[in-house]
Amino acid sequence: MTTSTVNHLLKQMTIKEKIAQLLQLAGPFFKGSDQQGQITGPMAEMPIEEEHILNSSSVLGVSGAKEVISIQQKHLEENRLGIPLLFMADIVHGYKTIFPVPLAIGCSWDLELAKKSTEIAAKEAAVSGVHVTFAPMVDLVRDPRWGRVMESTGEDPHLNSLFAKAFVEGFQKENLTSDTESVAACVKHFAAYGAAQAGRDYNTVDLSERQLRESYLPAYKAALDAGCEMVMTAFNTVDGIPATGNKELMRDLLREEWGFDGVLISDWGAVKELIAHGVAEDEKEAAKKAILAGLDIEMMTACYAQYLEELVEQGEIDIKLIDEAVLRILTLKEKLDLFNNPCRGASIEAEKAIVGHADHRKASRDLAAKSTVLLKNNHQTLPLSRNQKIALIGPFGDSNDLLGPWAGVGVKDEAVTMIKALKDHLPENNLIFSEGSSIEKITQSQLDEALQAASQADVVVLALGESSSMSGEANSRTNIQLPQAQLELIKTVAKEGKPVVTVLFNGRPLDLHGVVEHSDALLEAWFPGTEGGNALVDLLYGKVSPSAKLSMSFPYNVGQVPVYYNHFNTGRPKGAPDAQEHYVSDYMDSPNDPLFPFGFGLSYTSFAYDQFELSTDELTADSVIEASIRVKNTGSCSGEEIVQLYIRDFSGEIVRPVKELKDFCRISLEPGESEIIRFSIKEEQLRYHHKDLSFTSDAGKFEVFAGPNSQDTHSLFFTLKMKGGHTS
Ligand code: GLC
User: Fold this and answer.
1) Which of 123, 169, 510, 716 pairs with 357 at a CA distance of 20 to 30 A?
2) What pLDDT is stored for residue 726 in this prediction?
């Protein structure tokens, strides 16, 4: 079917059929679904009629070749014009083979492996009947109280943009029409959902347009520039208007300014939530505001289904708005070749052969090892030796809660636990296990048993963390420490005086007081996915040397939040040469700096940086400065290092961050080996949104930094000699 035939199809549709195309419903509404008829809770209150279901555009959250084929076939038997359904689901970090949560992947700084993870996720999902995934989630995050930070790749706009591109390219591959092992991507949540005030989910977002454009919008734009087919609106307000009813966001920015002509879908129930937000008196007004603002598909509420026809009849909205939306949906179906091949890649046979394939698990294991951050390693405690007797202690020692939130159809029982991986790796009598505590409770007998285990071991490996139900949507926390029970466990076990290696499983940066001081070595494993245990053993025993770098700051304590590296300097920066003794921007009871900064991560070897040089200290709009720095492996084992380049603008029309990541490079060095790393600096990298929101650079003084993280850097200065750049 071509665009003209899609237009022809639109002309044949009744207004009721058109309006129903703007509705997305969950599986229980559909004939042929395994959940058919199980319409409970809020779903049961939806005034959905048979004709709405029969003509709806898409199915939410159903996958599995058999069920998808069954629903699609039954649907096409009854749909008057033979318009197939789209099947959309949350395949965020894996379908059945689960990869580390995206915040972990963000710490890998490995764009190739990130792309490979979504290629694999797409392949497993497509043969299972999924057409569209509600991913990537690219919301920039600065507040670890928010449960959904695990879904983002972190606090930096540049790094998030690179990951957004990689994820979309992996999901959609080269050709959505011909490659039935691809899925269409839906970037979310537009926009700035990660800026929810106080880290409380669904809370108000109130940003200047400049901050929105500087920090929060780049990653969505990167996803769309990579060809992302859909956008999902966020629950939150942006500048006082809920995203789902925000014309400036959808029609003016997305459609007009960015030229996005794909499908816009609301988040779950977000159209009807315009009432709770206080910008619609009832569902009729909610429907009107959402369609006028540019929303195409309403997910799981029925404001459109109930009132759009009436609004057209009353002349309150033009039928053209509905036609445009329907055309975008039909065009996506046509792009996915659903009119010719309504079941697309769904195949029971292919599903058996592809889903959960060993090669996919291997890729997940590799990425998990590259996403785990070594935060501390005193006395070279790590890597361990197989000859050492290990006491594995803690609630995550024998836990399969390693997949994290939004784990597709991943099965926890298929996850490789720490104890399983250690048993496979160690001589039998070299491993003792004691749970020590549950996630939130501890008993004296558990403590006693843990101490007993520690006393018999050469090394203690503590496996601690948050349960996945403490992370993810609607799971915000004001206390971001480990639960008290686990803090008691680590403090008690540490008194045994044995070396302590702590492995953390969690979905957000934590306040690590009570953990760091009792650990000789500390690994941040996040939720590492299906192969988590094996990946950790690869790291613990040195088969892989850690190379990950934090993509989100770990605060010293929650009182600092939001704390992030690319902050402004203020007029009274602490530690400035001319700073006053007392009247500076700081706290009475905490340092300003985070405990572990953006870009931080250790290796089993060590690296020395020197010979930082610039090819010139003057830049013009059409010249390039080459920055070079020598990195040497000064340790006793090979290792990978992610060399980072940051820039600071000293002469902005508006205040500029003290550092901004502009480039990075991964290198691998043998002991004693050194390499000169070279970066190019161009005027376009110095552009930002000015007072009038023009995107240009300012002539003047800049500082450039290079190093292993955002704090420990070498720096030099250069000058941009002319006003360059272009207003975007
Ligand atoms: C949820 C999430 C969104 C997800 C959608 C469909 O509420 O906010 O990320 O894609 O509903 O499951």
Assistant:
1) 169
2) 41
Look at strands 23-26 and 58-60 and give their pairing: parallel
User: What is the dihedral angle through the alpha carbons of 358, 364, 368, 370, rounded to the nearest 10 degrees?
Assistant: 100
Question: Mean pLDDT by 10-residue block, N- to C-terminus, for the chain (728 residues)?
Answer: 84 98 97 94 92 97 98 98 98 98 99 98 98 98 98 98 99 98 98 98 97 98 98 98 98 98 98 98 98 98 98 98 98 98 98 98 98 98 98 98 98 98 96 98 98 98 98 98 98 97 98 98 98 98 98 98 98 91 94 98 98 98 97 97 98 96 98 98 98 96 98 98 54
| Residue 175 confidence (pLDDT) | 97
Give 584 Cα–ligand 1 centroid separation in angstroms. Answer: 43
Residues 623 and 484 both lie in one domain: no
Looking at residue 579, its pLDDT comes to 86
pLDDT of residue 1: 64
Q: 190: Cβ below 6 Å to ligand 1?
A: no
Mention every residue, 6+ apart, whose C-beta is less than 8 A from residue 315: none
Is residue 631 domain-shared with residue 524, that is, in the same domain?
Answer: no
Q: Is residue 506 part of a domain?
A: yes
Whole-number pLDDT of residue 91: 98
Strands (E), 177-307: 184-190, 230-233, 237-238, 241-242, 263-265, 298-299
**Residues ≥6 apart with Cβ < 8 Å to 12:** 81
Closest ligand 1 atom, residue 137 Cα: 9
Question: What six digits make up the tokens of 482?
Answer: 């480990």
* In a domain? residue 423: yes
Query: Quick one: which atom of ligand 1 is closest to the CA of 188?
Result: 9
Q: Are strands 695-696 and 688-689 parallel, antiparallel or unpaired?
A: antiparallel
* Domain endpoint, select from 486, 521, 540: 540
Q: Does residue 477 lie within any of the structural domains? A: yes
Are 369 and 99 in contact by the 8 Å Cβ rule? The answer is no
**CB hemisphere CA count around 70 (13 angstroms):** 15
Name the helix (H) or strand (E) containing 540.
helix 532-540
Please work out whether the CB of residue 406 comes within 6 Å of at least one atom of ligand 1. no
Q: How remote is the CA of residue 295 from the centroid of ligand 1, in Å?
A: 16
**């899609």: which residue's tokens?**
6
Distance 723 CA to ligand 1 centre (A): 44
Question: How many residues would you count in the chain?
Answer: 728
The residues assigned a catalytic role are: 267
Question: Do residues 187 and 231 touch, judged by C-beta distance below 8 A?
Answer: yes
State whether residue 459 is helix, strand or coil.
strand
How many structural domains compose the chain? 2
Specify the ligand 1 atom closest to the Cα of 193. 8
Strand 660-669, strand 639-649: pairing = antiparallel
Q: Which of 101, 99, 24, 35 is nearest to 63 (CA)?
A: 35
For 273-363, strand residue ranges (E) read 298-299
Domain for residue 602, yes or no?
no
Query: What is the structure's pLDDT at 578?
Result: 87
User: How much is the pTM?
Assistant: 0.98
Phi, psi of 628 (to 5 degrees): -130, 150
Q: Is 188 in the pocket of ligand 1 (CB under 6 A)?
A: yes
The CA 473 to ligand 1 mean position distance, Å, reads 8
